[in-house]
Specification:
heterodimer, A: mainly beta, 8-stranded mixed sheet, 27 strands, 1% helix, globular, B: alpha+beta, two-stranded antiparallel sheet, elongated
Chain lengths: 350, 23
Amino acid sequence: TEAEQLTPVLLDGLREENLQFVSKLKDSSSSCAVDVSSVWWEAAGCRKLCVVTACESSVSLWKPLALDHWEKVYTWQLGEIPVIQIVPLPDTCNLVCIALGNLEIGEIRLLLYSSENNSFKQSVVKTGNIKAVLGLKDGRLVSSSRAMQEQQVEIVSLSETGRCKDRLTLMPPEETVLAFAEVEGMRDALVGTTAVNSVAVWNLKTGQLLKKMHMGYSYPASICHRAYSDSGLLFVVLSHPHAKESESCGNPAFRVVAFNPKTARSAGVMFSSLPPGHAGRYVEGEVKDAWAAAVLTSGAIAVWDLLLGCCTALLPPGSDNRWTLVRWSAAGAGLLAGRADGSVCVYRYA
Amino acid sequence: CSDSDLGPVSLDWFEELSSEAPP
């Protein structure tokens, strides 16, 4: 029965399976998985794409072995503050960033290996009432936090050894920023979604808040996942945990919206909903390039092709062990699917 | 270049907004 649970169901109209099971890892000492991610890790001159698993009190690094097996390399013990999420840092090696806190993030920490004293270690990058955090290219970390009535939006540049090289404060909007997304292909552009359903645009070089664009209340609590600019328009991929169901588009999990940054006007481009006959709303998910994946309230994982605008794969929930996490791998077309019991299944999406 | 719903667009929107926004 487990083999059945690990196998994607074929959706109507698709001729071949495009999500293939590769391997499974299970931390026998853990039963409280809160997040999973992948990270490039170099040891003895060999760089490998490793898996990072987090439970509330510890974070483990796993390296791939032959025959689709995994070996735990190290476990960082983190003390009393629970881990909330892993924060991937694109284009970095030997660095894992995590967010810790109770209900909301109170601390951001780096986990790393120090060749100077030949040991694994951890260091605090930021503390405060942190509302959102995102790892950016070139070892940068952006976060929004609140102190009294003031909001701070800050970029921290990290060195390869995990030191904070530089800090830059961005001009904050009045409302709280709940999520960030880099604008692909524009190193100095960043977008964020706010608590009153606006999209903010910053210049990361100057710290300027360039524009704030409201997107209406039809899809409240929208979270940005990806942004890119094309033909003078800014396209933002948003998820919608609280979207209203409609006959035309069902329960949309993701939506692509085009914004004109010059006029602040917007228009919906595409919905990503479940195929007819499949129930479930968006719980959490991730977008990579034109691929979107989400865990649904049914305990299933769905994958969409945002270019085709359709659901391309569905992992059904097990009878007693639902999917709780889904992340795209940092390289290639890998998908990491996690369960609450701490097991992680690696799939190949093609 | 313009779009009837979204208004006139600019390929250089990022540079233009950066020169207009307060520092």
